[in-house]
Structure formats: structure tokens, C-alpha cells
Amino acid sequence: MGTVNFFKKLFCRVFQGGMRAALPFLPYREPELIDGVAGVPAVLRQHDIDCVMLVTDAGVRGLGLTAHLEELLKTAHIRCVVYDATVANPTVANVEQARQLYLDRGCQGLIAFGGGSSMDCAKAVGARIVRPRKPLAKMEGLLQVMHRLPLLIAVPTTAGTGSETTLAAVITDSQTHHKYPINDFSLIPHYAVLDPDVTLNLPGHLTATTGMDALTHAVEAYIGRSTTKQTRAAAIEAVQLIFANLPEAYFNGHNREARANMLRAAYLAGTAFTKSYVGYVHAVAHSLGGRYGIAHGLANSVLLPVVLKAYGSAAWKKLAELARAAGVSQAASDEEAAKTFIEYIEALNAAMDIPETLPGIRDEDIEELARHADHEANPLYPVPALWDARELQSLYHQVQEESHHDGKRSAGHSATAA
């Protein structure tokens, strides 16, 4: 089949070129790092905050992960208002509930404690607080917040999303099942706490899928066409750390060094894709999360090798560079090294019992899902190869469970490099 039409392709590449040229002039920043949760009360005091909202989810709080911080805040005489109803793909309703609680209780700042969902929720709460007349749906896309958020401290309990350092929040409209990103420099947290102790009890399957989520960030940032010397270096180091530490973190979750290295990897990958963006893995994963509630890390884990294969020769050179830097392959041929890199990812998934397909994807939904992915990715994501909505449909079919497709999986639906 044909590729993206000439004029759409030209528009996408010109847009991406303009974004790349603007990189040195945009107000990117990294959060200031706090050494462990014990340092949080002092930072709040420094900012004259005596009432803070803790945004988390019931699972994280139920495991007792927030208890130490809550006790520290109590000892420091800082009121802590807890919102723990965040769901796996945070919704507009989540954000509005938390925002109202924040206002009703007189909070002055936010602590996001958990995985990417809690951080996305907290970021969106902050955005709604400073833009009370602008609904979240109107914040979709680029630079639609443009106001400084209340103090935001991010405490990741998973080594995956990198949300503690990114300008993105992803929100789901539970009525339309549309999942969309909000990208604005003001969403970058002011502080981040990389504390391996809060990740030690993370279940194995979450360690696996969030770790592969971090790998996806690093790889998509590196192979895209809008990289800088800094983002390339961060992505390479992240890939090296993940390959060296994720299996140990998965099989021996209480290895503090492996957990600390994974937190650093996720942070580095976050800094890389904040500037260099992601690609079609994320666009497809977001559409699946919005429609079916599939966890983002799981979707990325399954889709990553599928999309990398589909890029074909358009991604070989950069994937080969990653393969050599990570010690996966020293082959002289870029094609051979790139394919070995993809095979390594597949083997890593298999070792951690990550499946090759995703549940519940229905044939009748794929056309609309692909339109959502196309809308998210094009023209913003500087992908190695450009595909339109029709071509993107192939990716859904490739990760679809056999029981949910009608046998029309391949005809006319191949994603081809452009």
C-alpha cells in the first residue's frame, strides 16, 4: 500500500524541523532532586507550605508506602490532605475530585506519590487550579496551560514513567474513552525524590512493565529525528542501566542497588523524551489505554518490538548504535545489530512473562483507535518513518489476541517505512 501522502509528510517534517530548531530556546528544566522522602518536609517549609495534598492511589497507600512520609509531615506540623482515588488511567473525574478537595481544604502544594498515573493526576490538578476556567479537554496538545503550577513534588514508586521529570500528563475522558496528552513546561515537577526504598515492594509484573516503559522512552527518544547531544547521551545511559539492572530488579526485588539504578534510568529516559519526544509505540498505547484501560507500561512493553520491526531500515542505524552501546551486539552490519537489539527486547519480555498480545482489542474499534493514534503522533512525534491512520491499523492487529480478530489481519494493513 502507499505511504503517508506527500503533503501530509511534508507538513509533518517541516513542523518537526521547526520544533527541533526551537529546542535551544524553549524553557526546558529538570526538577531539583531531594535525597529521600525524609527531605520533603524541609522543602515544604522552605516554601512556607503548611498544608499539602498527597495524590496517590489506593494500592500504593494500601501497601503502606506513603505512611512514612505522612508521619514525617505530621511530625513537622504540616497538614497532609490525601487523595488516593486515582485510577490506572487517570480520568477527568479524578482530577476534578482532587481539585475540589485541594480547594476545600486550603492546600498550598502537591505531592504526587506513586506511578505515572498519580503524577499525571497531580499535574492535571495543578493545571486546573491555575486555569480554573479552562477544562482539561481544552488543554490537550502543546502549551495550553501556560501558568506556573503550585509547588509540585514527585515521588515515583515505579521506575518507568519518568513522569517526575517530564512536561506531559495523560488524561482519559471516561465518557468518550479518549486518552490524550497535555504537554506544557509548567507541568514539569519542581522537585523529584528518587528513593529506592519506596520501590522495594513493587510486584514483579509492575517492575517488568514499568521498566520496559522506561526502555520505550529511551529508545523512542533516541531513534527519533529531534535529538540533541544531551538527549542521546541520556537515552544511551538509560538503555545501558535498564539492560544491566531490570532483570535483577525483577527477580530480586529487594536489591536496593538495582532499584536505585532503575530509578535513575527512568529519570534519564524521562529527560530524553521530554525534549526529543516519543513515537508510535506511545500513540498506539495511549489509544488502547483510553479505550480498554490497558495499563500503559504493559501496552508499551508489548508494542515496542512490534513497532521497531515495522520501522524497518528507517531505524536500523540508530538501533544498531544502541545495540553496540549496550553491549548487545558488536556486528558491523547495522541491520544485523538492530535486529539483535529487537530480539534482545523480545527475550527480556519473555523472561519476565510479558505476553506478546494485549487483551480485548476488537476489530470494529481498530479504525477509530488508529485515528486517535494518528492525531496524537502526527505531526508532533519525529518518528523514523511516517505512517497514516490506515497504516497504523496493522500494529493493533499484530498485538491483538487471536480470539478478537476476524481473519482480516494482514490484507492491506501493513505499516511501511516512509
Beta-strand fraction estimate: 5-15%
Into which percent range does the helicity of residues fall? 40-55%
Rounded to an integer, what's the Rg over CA atoms?
A: 21 Å
> Ends: how far apart?
11 Å
Low-confidence stretches: 407-418
Biggest β-sheet: count, sense, barrel? 6 strands, parallel
Overall structural class, as computed from helix and strand content, comes to alpha/beta
**Strand count:** 9
Major sheet: arrangement of strands: 1-9-6-4-2-3
* Morphology: globular
Helix count equals: 15
What letter string, H or E per element, gives the SSE order?
A: HEHEHHEHEHEEEEEHHHHHHHHH
**pLDDT averaged over residues:** 91
Quick rundown:
The protein has 418 residues and is α/β, with parallel strands linked by helices. Helix content is 51%, strand content 10%. Strands 1-9-6-4-2-3 form a 6-stranded parallel β-sheet, with helices on both faces. A 3-stranded mixed β-sheet has the order 5-8-7.
